[in-house]
Design goal:
Layout lengths: L1 E4 L5 E6 L5 E5 L13 E6 L5 E5 L2 E5 L5 E6 L7 E5 L2 E4 L1
Antiparallel strand pairs: 1-2, 2-3, 4-5, 5-6, 6-7, 8-9
Length: 92
């Protein structure tokens, strides 16, 4: 998984297969209900196969086709515990 810089079109989130081919990709930075509003800082998979994107403002959970499942605001100077399922947690 990673980011694809499409220059004037923006940055896309992407999932790659073992050979490096793009399995799915989507531009998700913006103001829409599926989007995150600030630059993505990190991405990760959960054991269930969901994709998490962390920005400075929020943590967004997507399926593998980048359809939004949930979004949590991180807030300023606020530490929160996120249960990622399967015994995994993220403390931000």
């Amino acid at each position: 998984m990673g980011f694809i810089d499409k220059r004037s079109e923006g940055i896309e989130l992407a999932v790659f297969d073992a050979e490096g081919k793009i399995v799915s990709s989507q531009k998700r930075q913006g103001e829409g209900p599926e989007d995150y509003q600030s630059s993505a800082l990190a991405m990760g998979f959960s054991p269930a196969g969901d994709v998490f994107v962390q920005t400075s403002l929020e943590l967004v959970k997507y399926d593998l086709k980048f359809n939004r499942i949930s979004k949590s605001s991180l807030g300023r100077r606020q530490l929160r515990l996120f249960n990622l399922g399967h015994g995994l947690s993220l403390f931000l």
